[in-house]
Structures are given as C-alpha cells and as structure tokens.
Amino acid sequence: DGTIYFGTGNSYAYAVTNDGIIVWSVAMNSGNVNGLLLASDGTVFATSNSDVASIEPVSGAVNWQYHVPAKVGSTVAFSPDESVVYVGGDNKLIYALATADGTVQWTYLTGHRSNNGLAVDAEGTIYAGNYD
C-alpha cells in the first residue's frame, strides 16, 4: 500500500504514507529504534536499544514488547515459518521470541556479543554477526 515504516533516534517507530502523512507513531522504551522488519502478514517488528516490539501495521497498536536485558544493535530475523523472531544482544546471547506473544522460547550463549545482525536461511540455520 506504499506505507513507509522507519525508526528514529528519539525512541519512536513510525508509519508514514508515501505523501508524508504520519499514520502512527509508537514510543519504544529505550533509545534509538535500530531496525524494523515486516512479517508476511504485515506485522511490524521493531528493535530499540534493549527492546523488541510487535506492532499492528494499520493502527500502530503494540501487540507485545519484550525488554532484552542487554543492548540490541540490529534488526530481528524470522524463523522460516515466521513463528519465532530472533534478536542478538551484547550480553553474548541470542533470544528466540514467539512472534505471537513475545515469550522467550530459548536463549543461546554465543561467547561473543551478538548484536551485530542475524540472518536465518530456509532450513532455519541462524547466522550471527559478532565483534570478533
């Protein structure tokens, strides 16, 4: 539909029409909004310094927000079926959160800061950038 989604350094995620009209804005709990990713159903997933949020794309209502006990530096990545969203923290952990409600499915200790970006292939293998 041409909607543009973006985050800012003032802790807000925005949806704006291609004419520049603000559709909604959502205040995140912590610092810069680092990245946004859209699920195939249109749900917006946003990260800020230490939070991940699931946002309804039309109204901007927050479905859920999870506070990561570490700095998050990048956008999330989805499992192949989009039932799980992954985010890395500078506490050396990768978090797997249920896209439906934000509950933690598991964490994995990588041994290095993992907040430099994640990617997931079609088989579900997670690739994590770090600061080696």
How would you describe what is shown here?
This protein is mainly β and 132 residues long. 0% of the residues lie in helices and 47% in strands. The protein has strands at 4-7, 12-16, 22-27, 33-38, 44-48, 51-55, 62-67, 77-78, 84-88, 93-98, 104-109, 118-120, 126-128. A 4-stranded antiparallel beta sheet has the order 4-5-6-7, with no helix packed on it. The chain has a 4-stranded antiparallel beta sheet with strand order 8-9-10-11, with no helix packed on it. The chain has a 3-stranded antiparallel beta sheet with strand order 1-2-3, with no helix packed on it. A hairpin with a 5-residue loop joins strand 12 (118-120) and strand 13 (126-128). The N and C termini lie far apart (41 Å). The model has no long low-confidence stretch (mean pLDDT 90).
Order of helices and strands: EEEEEEEEEEEEE
Question: Fraction of residues in helices?
Answer: under 10%
Whole-Å distance between the termini?
41 Å
Rg to the nearest angstrom?
14 Å
The shape, in one word, is: globular
Described by strand count, sense and barrel closure, the largest sheet is:
4 strands, antiparallel
Short description:
The chain is mostly beta strands.
SSE layout and pairing:
Blueprint: E1 4-7, E2 12-16, E3 22-27, E4 33-38, E5 44-48, E6 51-55, E7 62-67, E8 77-78, E9 84-88, E10 93-98, E11 104-109, E12 118-120, E13 126-128
Antiparallel strand pairs: 1-2, 2-3, 4-5, 5-6, 6-7, 8-9, 9-10, 10-11, 12-13
Key attributes of the depicted protein:
13 strands; 132 residues; mainly beta; globular; 4-stranded antiparallel beta sheet
